User: Fold these one by one.
Assistant:
Number 1:
Amino acid sequence: MKSFDVIIVGSGFSGLSAAYYLQQAGFKVKVLEVSSQSGGRARSDKMDGYTLDRGLHFYHHSTTELKKIININELELKNTYPGYLLRYQNTFNLFTNPVYQTFDSLSTALSQNATFTDKMRLFGLYVKLKTLPYNKLVKENESSTFEYFSKNGFSKKLIDSLFRPMLAANIFDYNLQSSSRFSKIYLKSLFQDHVALPKDGIGKISKTIANKLEPNTISFKTKVKKVVDNGVELMNGEFIESKFVIVATNAIDANGVLHREVLSAECSHVTTLYFSADKAPVSKAVVILNGNESGLVNHVFVPTNLHKEYAPKGKHLIAVNVVKEHDLDDEELEIKCLTELSDWFGLSVMDWKHLKTYYIKYAMPFKPILDEVRFFKKVSDTIYCCGDSLSIGSMETALRSGRETASIVAQELEKNPSTLEKLEFQQ
Ligand SMILES: Cc1cc2nc3c(=O)[nH]c(=O)nc-3n(C[C@H](O)[C@H](O)[C@H](O)COP(=O)(O)OP(=O)(O)OC[C@H]3O[C@@H](n4cnc5c(N)ncnc54)[C@H](O)[C@@H]3O)c2cc1C
């Protein structure tokens, strides 16, 4: 039986961040991870020369947590186009983020799906979200996102053709039933900065953080069955002792290892289908949204338009994302998506080669009401939970949650005289 100051269950962003800060403070930490790599939901797979992110993720430049741990230049980031390409009826319109005024803004101004009043209100919303700090946003009146847009005078046409696919692409909520505070926080972050991808895929971020940990901190392919006050029991029956345990998994897995409902398990889903093609369907590195209510495909992105390294030489990688509920099997879903996309891009779509489909059952916590933004939860005197399920789904909140949980656990360890062992361990 080994003994640690802290065992962390899960090596997603929250677990890695907690491990990093606890090790920086000199504690003896072990991270147990069921899969074969770190990064949790934000990891990438390599397949036949392609880099497949587990669902389309972007790094947001305005975030601050990651920069506290790594030098982001190591990621070789490139920015996507600042806005969206909206497929509405049979045309494409560019919606450019007003902060990055370009000639393309003319396309935004002329777009067919918004009335003049909508465009004015959209600009008003942009200015409001850009100037209002986060701590004020989370105190604004709460309602569903749909109610918020309707009450603020946006037309049904704009809500259906822009807000639905845009929020579905970011928080996987096509029905706009999430808390309006939650959606406004997302829109604020979308309006205020550029988003980017690392050259080696989103998984490069967690790998870079994991490299900051002491060697052998993470035990991969190690599934925790049960968390108790003095340690964890593994699936293979082994017991590992520790003074504290931090559960850094999604809410469903946390409730599973804690054997009771500690966190709300409501979540959103997304399916990402990857295709390979000889030619990219568009030339810009822009997220293409489906502004027509019909159809299953919500958004499409071509990572190779940003980093050609996402695919072997001469090939393009295309990520097709579905957010609406469906009951199609793998093959039916693939055919349905390609049929829809042949309307967007022409029949050459039928030559695309399907690579892989990811069904992501727990994409982000679903929050109909955002009453409290918390970054850790105390389950008992020695067990804490962290991760995005406590607040809102993002790499930033997961990293902050890990940091804040590490800080509180470190304070508890410092109070405990038995932590003197820590000093012996360091010598
Ligand atoms: C498709 C998609 C797109 C997204 N896009 C963005 C984006 O653009 N920008 C952004 O900031 N955020 C985005 N997010 C959200 C972001 O990925 C998450 O908020 C963040 O990664 C959550 O990290 P976490 O540490 O809280 O949990 P997780 O990443 O879920 O990590 C939990 C870890 O625990 C492990 N685990 C679970 N059970 C056990 C067990 N019993 N024993 C051992 N290990 C266990 C899991 O394998 C996993 O590695 C996106 C999410 C998805 C799914």
Number 2:
Amino acid sequence: MSGFHGLFIPGPTNLPFRVRQAMDVPLEDHRAPDFPAFTLPLFQDLKKVFKTEKGQVFVFPSSGTGGWESAIANTLSPGDGVLVSVFGQFSHLWADMCRRFGLAVDVIDTEWGEGAPAEEYQRRLEADKAHKIKAVLVCHNETATGVTSDVAAVRKALDAAKHPALLFVDGVSSIASIDFRMDEWGADVVVSGSQKGFMLPPGLAIVGVSQKALEAHKTARLPRCFFDYSDMIKTNKDGYFPYTPATTLLHGLRASLDMLFAEGLENVFKRHRRLADAVRRGVAAWGLTLCAKDPKWYSDTVSAVCVPKNFNSDDVIKTAYHRYQVSLGTGLSKVAGRVFRIGHLGHVNEIMVLQGLAGAEMALRDVGVPVEAGSGVGAAEEHIRATAPKLKLGKVA
Ligand SMILES: Cc1ncc(COP(=O)(O)O)c(C=O)c1O
């Protein structure tokens, strides 16, 4: 194959060349006297991405799923209640993990394609007079359906109900791509992973933890070992880890943070919004709909596109993969065969998005979905053109 295979799944995402280069280093002594000079600024800089001054960010050699586990095991006790709305595969899996930990899980069963229902959170929290619910879980960006929830509204629900539960947020496919304000929204454990907005290979769980969660950690009784926040605190304060860290990935993380700050976080969010808008216009021009039921839920990192009845989205995905070297995300669980997903997060730009749309568009036509040639790509192009910086061109003499 010549050229690059187009990676348009919602993570792992494309690696910037600079990040790849930064990881091309000899392995090193992670207990060396000068190692903290590298790690301490890294810990501080991660806090800027989570927008927390009061909290701490821990980096585990793991994936996002390990970050979920760290939240549960460190702050809760057997039998504790948790309240979670389930509206996609990832919110479902986190709720399932809570059950496996022996927690009492109160599920707000929400239609896939909708986001976290803040009013229902409030109603159930108000009904919990005995404060049996110890943690409220919300998936900020449900990657399976392309839905972004309003975390601030869930915070407000907790406050309105005067409920002391911790607020856990899954930010795996939002952090570093969609605005997230850990302190302002009073989030207590925020879980992310390296392979999405951080533009790194999989392998790190990056977890923001509030002081309130660290307080809860002191008396929480669920067993924990690998993900123990106390061990992290003890060693991180001097720039070290309780076990061998993924040093190579940490060098990639340094480069990724430098790139995010050079662009400016707010500009990173704007870029994601603009490219997502271009994708959404393309989808509309195809005459197709998103799994996200309302514009207020639209995700700026991933679009789950519904194929018309009588078509199988897996055929579109296979066709795009084999005929056009474009990877699209598959439909998971309840929406298997019904949606394909276009990931537009991390290291992406205008032309890359058009590549993904072109691959999807040709594949849709190949499998017989009545889509006009160039329609989606054309609509996206027009949005990109209309929103690109203006140039003043000189006249040719
Ligand atoms: C929203 C969300 N949460 C959690 C996970 C699980 O993360 P990981 O696969 O890194 O364990 C994913 C993975 O795609 C995700 O998209």
